[in-house]
Amino acid sequence: MSVVICGFYGTDTEHLVPPLVRTLRAYQHTIDFIKIDGDATKPELILQAMRRHPRKIIVVLDPDCMVHAPLNQLRHIRGDVALLCAVCLVAVARGTLCAAAPWSSGLAVVRKGSFSSGLN
C-alpha cells in the first residue's frame, strides 16, 4: 500500500502549511492538505481523506509538524490506527507506577485493513 500525507488547517495555521508541503514534496510524498472551517472534527476529516484515497495508508500531520525524513516506512506499521505519542511513567499512591500517553505528537497513521479486531 502506498502512503498519502494528509493534513487539515484553518486560517490561523495556514502560514505553517507551505514550508511543510515543500518538505514533503522534497521527499516525493503524495500530499492532500485541505483548508477547513472551525466546524469539522479530526475523525470526520480523516474519514473524508480515507474516502478520497481508498486502499491507501493515510498519514495525518498537523500543520506545525516538522518532517526530517521520508515517511514511507510508516506503511509497515501493523494495525488499523497508529498514534505516535510520548509515554511517561506517573507515580500513583502506594508506589504503583502508571503509564500515561498524552496525545501530543500531531501524527496519526490510518489504514483500512484486516486488523480491526485489535493490534497484532
Structure description:
The protein has one domain (3-110). 14% of the residues are buried. It has helices spanning 17-26, 42-52, and strands spanning 3-9, 30-35, 57-61, 81-83, 88-91, 97-100, 107-110. A hairpin with a 5-residue loop joins strand 5 and strand 6. With 120 residues, the protein is of the alpha/beta class. Strands 2-1-3-7-4 form a five-stranded mixed β-sheet, sandwiched between helices. The longest helix has 11 residues, at 42-52. The protein has two helices and seven strands; from the N terminus they run E-H-E-H-E-E-E-E-E.
List the helices and strands and how they pair.
Layout: E1 3-9, H1 17-26, E2 30-35, H2 42-52, E3 57-61, E4 81-83, E5 88-91, E6 97-100, E7 107-110
Parallel strand pairs: 1-2, 1-3
Antiparallel strand pairs: 3-7, 4-7, 5-6
